[in-house]
Write a structure and sequence with these properties.
- This protein has 261 residues and is α/β, with parallel strands linked by helices.
- The protein has one domain: NAD(P)-binding Rossmann-like Domain (Rossmann fold, 3-Layer(aba) Sandwich).
- It has a 7-stranded parallel sheet, sandwiched between helices.
- Helix 5 links the parallel strand 4 and strand 5.
- The relative contact order is 0.15.
- The chain binds nicotinamide-adenine-dinucleotide.
- The site of nicotinamide-adenine-dinucleotide (NAD) has 31 residues, from helix 2, helix 5 and helix 7.
């Protein structure tokens, strides 16, 4: 039987992580490094990307805005030059400003879609190109959200639409890349305790918006608590490693049971 190391280990592999500077992305970088991967830590915040990379055994930090086509192409090229191969993309970066639907401007709508939807398209496109060129297949893990499946909290419509797109892009491309050995899956967090989530809630209160919706209802979080970044990262490691070699196109909820409540 194959060893745990062969199944879940990432030795000799290179992973590019978007949004790696903090929160879930940072936990992914740290866990994947423990599993033996070399990591390209990518974030719009260059300082945190470099800090996270600097604390890992074999990693480099890159500043990239994933909504910008030139920057995404340049970053993948720089990572290819530095590491020589790409085995996994864990795409974590996203924004989640809470906005009232009726007063949201088209520019605010476009901002969410530019980062979360166009950004997902761009990083997937570049990762698939790099993996195809490498000829060894690979794994892509997109962090989507339960909000892409189900209305979860109020004032979150633009974000929910962008995450529905992320989950759908996962499925669409899974069937188009399977023949070259590239598996593509999504992880759907429910609520996770991160700096980004805390800041979004505080901004919402400042904007006078109500926090409500199914996810805040009694009994809707069967495990009775929000998740921690590491609990999302472990699901990513499963889907990026050979442990999930027969899994593609799925959406794995990591949500404390929200979607079945
Ligand atoms: N925290 C939650 O409750 C929750 C719930 C469901 C899904 N998610 C998803 O999990 C992922 C991580 O969320 P988090 O809570 O860790 O967020 P976070 O805000 O703490 O971290 C996100 C990171 O992405 C980076 N980023 C933002 N815009 C970028 C851009 N244009 N280009 C490159 N990097 C950019 C930020 O600088 C930051 O380091 C996101 O995809 C989010 O939608 C989070």
């Amino acid at each position: 039987m194959a060893s745990i190391e062969t199944l879940f280990g990432m030795h000799g592999k290179v992973a590019l992580v978007t949004g790696g500077g903090r929160g879930v992305g940072r936990a992914v970088c740290e866990l994947f490094a423990q599993a033996g991967a070399r990591i390209a830590v990518c974030d719009i915040d260059e300082t945190t990307a470099r800090e996270v990379a600097g604390a890992l055994p074999d990693a480099a930090g890159y500043r990239v805005d994933i909504s910008n086509e030139d920057e995404v192409e340049r970053t993948f090229a720089q990572a290819a030059e530095r590491f020589g191969r790409l085995d996994a993309l864990v795409h974590v970066a996203a924004i989640f400003p809470k906005r009232d639907f009726l007063t949201m401007t088209a520019a605010q709508w476009d901002e969410i879609q530019a980062v979360n939807t166009r950004g997902t398209f761009l990083v997937m496109r570049e990762a698939i190109k790099a993996m195809k060129a490498g000829g060894r297949g690979g794994a892509i893990v997109n962090i989507s959200s339960t909000s892409g499946e189900r209305a979860s909290v109020t004032n979150n419509s633009g974000y929910g639409a962008s995450k529905a797109a992320t989950t759908n892009l996962t499925r669409s491309m899974a069937i188009e890349t399977a023949e070259v050995g590239i598996r593509i899956n999504a992880v759907l967090p429910g609520a996770v305790a991160t700096e980004g989530a805390k800041a979004a809630t505080e901004r919402m209160k400042d904007d006078g918006l109500q926090i409500g919706g199914p996810m805040t209802g009694a009994g809707r979080m069967p495990l009775g608590r929000v998740g921690q970044p590491l609990e999302i990262a472990t699901a990513c490691l499963f889907l990026a490693s050979d442990a999930s070699s027969y899994v593609t196109g799925i959406s794995l909820p990591v949500d404390g049971g929200f979607l079945v409540s």
